[in-house]
Amino acid sequence: MIKILMYNIMDDEKIVVTEWLTHHHDVQIDWNTVTLNPDTVDLAKGYDGISTEQDNLIDDPIVYEKLHAFGIKQITLRITGYDTINLSLATQNNLKITNVPAYSPRSVSEMVLAQTMWLLRNLNTAQQRTQNHDFTWEGLQSREIHDLIVGIIGAGKIGSEVARIFKALGATVIAADPIHRPELNSVLTYVNHETIFKTADIITTHTPLLDSTYHLFDESVFQQMKPSAIFINASRGGVVDTPALIAALNNHTIAAAGLDTIEGEADIFSNDFSDNDFDNDDLKTILAMPNAIITPHIGFYTDNAIRNMVEISLHDMLTIIAGKTSEHELN
Prior knowledge:
Strand content: 5-15%
Radius of gyration: 21 Å
Number of strands: 12
Shape: globular
């Protein structure tokens, strides 16, 4: 019997796991609701494989050393982003790291569209007014999407789906990506970053968080954008210098921003602070801004995505436990 432990599981994932087990009688899966860290790593003792879905960093060497000592061969992430993992420590301890690079690119791309249209049609302002019984039209005139240029930073699996959606709506789509995919030639035009910053009406980013992309969007980049530009971040919080974004919104350097992620979200998003305070002043500032919207990192959160996250990660775990190679290995 293969024994698997799933850290930080969501209720929606439990449903998929339970169904999956009806077809895999030789596997035992246990779960918990804690993140993988030095205080919880001992829970993995006695298991053949583990997976987690978390934004908290796994950067303490003891985690990797103990997992190796327990005989575990991998850490499987049920998400796309892997900046939470220290790949060097994982490799040193013979731990294969996998992620789910395409659990549902459509889910995130539809969130980008939703945030874009909310901001483009000035629905923030309209909602605030109507809630106060103000039904006037002044200041609510918007542009139409087919007249606009959409710029995509990172046209991989998610970014290319974003491109297809906006192209279908009639927008002109441009993208910056080191890999040029011939199948996208009818959808977008590849350009450099500067062209996107200076010419796009809507700029959306879909890059991983790497040393090269940390604070990619800083003060100098926002200053290059049109005053009418809408900025969307549905990738990783650290891609954006948040104080620089706040200044750009306050100074009307850009028109609006939609965020599904923000720096410092790890201990806030997915938790209820209705009756408590949270420690992130930048987040509080953005929440109060009329020209910004923020959602709690739910771009991925659809039925198809949850099923794919669970099933792909379980397949990868069994593959590595069996001594084979997963196509999603990161090290």
